[in-house]
User: What shape does this take?
Amino acid sequence: MSNELEAILNLTSVQSCSDIFLSSASQCLLGHNEDADPIVDSTGYMVSVNITDSDLKENFTAYHYPGHIAGLAFGFNQWGLVATMNGLYPVEVAFNGIPRQFINRALLSATSYSDVYRILTEGNVAYGFSVNFGFADGPDALGLWNIEIAPNYTAAALSPILSIQKLNLDHYYHFNVYDRLTVSEREGDSVSSQHRKQRAEQLPVPTDATGIQTILGDSGDAEYPIYRVPSTTDDAATVAIVVFDLVKKVAVVFRDNPKSASPVFRFDLSRPSQSSSMSTMHPSSSSMTVLILLVSSLFTSIM
Assistant: This one.
């Protein structure tokens, strides 16, 4: 169910996702835990898509929830964009706004930072979210940003409220609560995030990908761990983990705890030429499905 409907019906949502940024003289990394209802652990899948419509050409790879469009979790595209999402949970829905799923999907087509900004501000949003992103190639290569987005509740609002933070030789964590914007949030949806944030700040500051994986795999808070396994206090599960290395131009995806497990997929983020197809995938043994879709038009059958 969409976050908008959950808010309208006052239903408890599964808080999803922990993100870690690392920007240094030699490192440019973004790590992400995708947390969801445990059923997604056996039904989620990766999709690589090549849209060759004459007016719209897209080439992206993304983690998919069954019954949802791409963009809700994490992905990357042919322009070097890497992106992850955090659900945020305002009390109110803006009924004059665009549902976040459509905006999240549109972000997978972004070619630059300015393009991300354009997509986020072309119309008001119905509900909140945070986008964590960077570029492995192009004019914005090795840049990392977090943008918090909140609905603008003014009746005639044409764009949402944004808070933009660019990483500059630093580390940063983001979870499922607003960090910089002052927004009335659903109280019951913040408990896990507050615990995960506090625990991350207790751990050693990461200096490389291994350090990020150590934090993403941490279970030191037994009631509300960062790496989540369904329990009596926390019914969510960490269903996938990704670490993007923008210097090495590699993305690795894990199914199990990244502190000890091997990645099940390794993706090449090198920007393909105009004539190449899609980024190379190197799968390991895994039960995570990968679908490769070649779409000649947005409205034609999958080939």
About this structure: Confidence is low (pLDDT under 50) at residues 272-282, 293-303. The two ends are 28 Å apart (CA to CA).
